[in-house]
Amino acid sequence: MLLKYSQYSTQVLEQESLRKILESCIRYLRLSVIFLCGISYYFTVLFLSRDRPTISVADLYVSSLNQTSTSLTNTTTISIDLKFQNENLGVGIYYEDPLNLTITYIPQNITNFITIQGFYQGNGKVNHIQVSTVVQRHFLKR
């Protein structure tokens, strides 16, 4: 009788240990599925919700339009403050290629080119880049 009881208790212990192992495997499997779903959602939102950066002119100054200036030179300085706004919260932008800006004043057929070197803009950041150029003729005849 003793032998039968020990065999029975061994079987019960094996079943209980197998049940515990199975329960822990199921628990880890559930946690893994939840974790993978969370990571998948994060990357889906990160890669599919990208916004284009906004570029605008924050300030423009043309020295020949300054009425208080008494300068009689034949040059005009144009200063531009460009505002680059990255509205992506999870992705930074690297402007690898130079940005070419063309300034044209059609009535007097004046064209100037400005090159802005590439730069990095962090996520959710606003960069102000100030550029200027000198034009050899006045924009307005006085």
Automatic annotation (TrEMBL):
<keyword id="KW-1133">Transmembrane helix</keyword>
<keyword id="KW-0472">Membrane</keyword>
<dbReference type="InterPro" id="IPR044839">
    <property type="entry name" value="NDR1-like"/>
</dbReference>
<dbReference type="GO" id="GO:0098542">
    <property type="term" value="P:defense response to other organism"/>
</dbReference>
<dbReference type="GO" id="GO:0009506">
    <property type="term" value="C:plasmodesma"/>
</dbReference>
<protein>
    <recommendedName>
        <fullName>Late embryogenesis abundant protein LEA-2 subgroup domain-containing protein</fullName>
    </recommendedName>
</protein>
<dbReference type="GO" id="GO:0005886">
    <property type="term" value="C:plasma membrane"/>
</dbReference>
<keyword id="KW-0812">Transmembrane</keyword>
<feature type="transmembrane region" description="Helical">
    <location>
        <begin position="28"/>
        <end position="48"/>
    </location>
</feature>
